[in-house]
Design a protein that fits this description.
By secondary structure, the protein is an alpha/beta fold. It contains ten helices and ten strands.
């Protein structure tokens, strides 16, 4: 597999407050990785840098063979980065189908179309004419995933994709992520359900106060319960 994403020595700040300190991250094409850590440890800031919403103060970001450090968000998105944002951020005045049609792109292939999203999420097919503001939280999450998929991204980033969802809907989202992984979709996932993430991803990075304090495979993470207790508040 080829290297899809490489982060080297990344640092970032909000004004005079530094948040990230020397972050390194690598993800192969077709692989899946997670960012783990308690709230406020820098995960969202790192995602903002990857997406082009925040310019790093130091370090480099390479994505899809390009040095994208300092690129604008729209330029990085056009290169093939898709985001499912925390909070879903669906448009209340657009229908389900309008969301999918507006974001659909064949720039990086045509595997994902609105119709294929309806197959993945039959609930959305039933509600294709409903406005975003009329959907439940779980339906909005499905729409946010579908909206990102129809851009046919090289890398799909999911920020708290199962946060606040009912258990049955949460299971649908995990099933969707397994399907994407089996299809070879590259994934970078932020979530708190460590057991489920270990089943999904190849590698994991734990952030603590803006630094990667642990990195390894699912087998290594399972074998080190002290990491769970110390950095994730689990166990």
């Amino acid at each position: 597999m080829s290297l899809l994403l490489e982060v080297q020595g990344l640092e970032a700040a909000y004004g005079s407050s530094q948040v990230l300190f020397g972050i390194d991250l690598r993800l192969e094409a077709g692989g899946a990785a997670t960012l783990l850590g308690r709230n406020g440890m820098g995960k969202s800031t790192l995602l903002r840098c990857l997406c082009g919403w925040l310019a790093p103060t130091q370090g480099r970001i390479r994505f899809a063979g390009q040095d994208v450090t300092g690129w604008s968000a729209d330029r990085i998105a056009r290169l093939g980065l898709g985001l499912v944002p925390e909070g879903r951020q669906c448009f209340s005045n657009l229908s389900v189908h309008e969301h999918l049609a507006a974001f659909a792109s064949t720039r990086h292939g045509s595997a994902w179309t609105p119709e294929r999203v309806y197959v993945l999420f039959p609930r959305l097919a039933e509600r294709r004419q409903h406005l975003g503001g009329q959907l439940s939280g779980g339906e909005q999450q499905m729409l946010a995933i579908g909206r990102a998929l129809v851009t046919n991204p090289k890398l799909l980033i999911l920020d708290e994709a199962t946060e606040g969802l009912a258990p049955l809907i949460r299971e649908e989202i995990w099933a969707c992520l397994r399907t994407l992984r089996e299809a070879g979709q590259s994934l970078l996932v932020v979530d708190k359900y460590v057991h489920r993430l270990m089943q999904l991803a190849d590698q994991h990075q734990v952030l603590e106060r803006g630094r990667v304090v642990w990195a390894g495979s699912s087998a290594q993470l399972e074998a080190e319960p002290e990491v769970w207790k110390r950095y994730l508040g689990v166990g």
